[in-house]
Amino acid sequence: MLSTIAKKFSSKSKRKQTRQDLELDWKKKTQALLYLIRTGKKDEAIDLATELVEFVEEKFPKDAPEKATTYNNMGMVLMLEHDWDLADECFREALAMRRRLFGDIHKEVALTYMNLIELYKQRAYEILSATKETA
User: Which residues form the domain of 114?
Assistant: First the structure.
């Protein structure tokens, strides 16, 4: 009898996640990531963003909106780290996905362009600051 109960409960824990379950898990993790970004907790944000990228790569289709948002958020985390090139790559990947999903004229596309602008602005300020020190 105990083995029957154990099998029943272990099969429940191993059940395949539905799309709704995946979206809920993704939303919870994304909200936690946004909190870490806002509070500047870089190390924790990098770990969670990496986990989210792996999650969406494994669980979502090629051009899922969740995947585009995850790459956008990873770009934001990388900006905190001043990893400009990788942040640029993430934003561009998010932009390409969002353009395929929504077309060129869409709020999500515009937001990604704005993140690229912010990236270039921060990068330019860093360069200007470095040139002042060497001048």
Answer: 20-134
